[in-house]
Amino acid sequence: MLRQLEYLRALAREGHFGRAAEVCHVSQPALSAGIRKLEAELGVQIVQRGQRFEGFTPEGQEVLRWGQRMLAEREVLDHTLSSMRAGLSGVLRIGAIPTALSVSSLLTAPLRTQHPSVRFALASMSSREIVTRLNDFDIDIGMTYVDGEPLGRVRVLPLYRERYLFLTPGDGTFAGRHAVTWCEAAAADLCLLMPSMQNRRILDGCFADAGGEAAPVVETDTISAVYAHVAAMGLSSVVPHTWLHGFGVPPGAQVLSLPQPKRSFHVGLVLPAAGPESLLARTLVDTASRAELSDRIDEAVRHHQR
């Protein structure tokens, strides 16, 4: 049955019988026959059939959900037994919001030092995508906001509370200043992350609480583009304090303080509340509990604000 569930998982991901068969390294008739055999064993229709794949029946959706869980449990078992035989190894799949990517190395580097055979697949994702991918067992662990928008059924390990700084040209409007207000920040020529990203929604809330509203010159979904436009176009930005650890301050720019907003948010690790727990994910959690992230991030902020 596990092989047939693999066919089903591939079909859900590819949305096409031929491509799913290629992924599974079988012929299309063999894949179709395997799914029909699974339907016969369970006594339900799983796939809506026409001239092409048309989706899953309600019963098929339930079979797919349980199948994904069974396959994930088998993969975890295989990896755990392999690690017990040869030491911890394999690929740890991490989904992280862009604002947390800059400090992810504070966790991956010490884990790699302790377990040199471990590799990492680190992908930038929205907070909503992280939860979806966790529930589908497409990633092992997430780094995201843990006390903001609803996360659903996940287990949480808070890492640090996010703060915000005003990144601006050193010779611009705010030259010689040590701090700005949220209203002043909102009125500046800004480069910010996209409104679809939770960080931006948090910042818009901070602007609104202060009676302001931002109208960015540039909106982007990457940290590198924010830094590039601050440097190339003389724009300003409101950035999480964690960015200073990974990226510092661009040449010719400065960081100014902002008032503490009415509400701040924790970033942390999230894992599925139910189902198998990857041994690699468990090891990353153990690493995070010893990493003292907040102290190391604060040290970088102090260095760049001198």
Please outline what is shown here.
This protein has helices spanning 2-14, 17-24, 28-42, 58-86, 98-101, 105-114, 127-135, 182-187, 198-209, 223-233, 243-247, 279-290, 293-304; strands at residues 47-49, 53-56, 90-96, 118-124, 141-145, 154-161, 164-169, 191-193, 218-220, 237-240, 253-257, 266-272. With 306 residues, the protein is an alpha/beta fold.
Characterise this structure.
The structure is a single chain. By secondary structure, the protein is an alpha/beta fold. Helices cover 48% and strands 20% of the residues. It has 13 helices and twelve strands. A five-stranded mixed β-sheet has the order 4-3-5-12-6, sandwiched between helices. Helix 2 crosses helix 3 and helix 6 (105-114) crosses helix 12 (279-290). The relative contact order is 0.14. The model has no long low-confidence stretch (mean pLDDT 87).
Q: Which series of helices and strands comes N to C?
A: HHHEEHEHHEHEEEHEHEHEHEEHH
Structural class: alpha/beta
The level 1 CATH classification of the largest domain is Alpha Beta
Helix count? 13
Q: Indicate the overall shape.
A: elongated
* Major sheet: arrangement of strands: 4-3-5-12-6
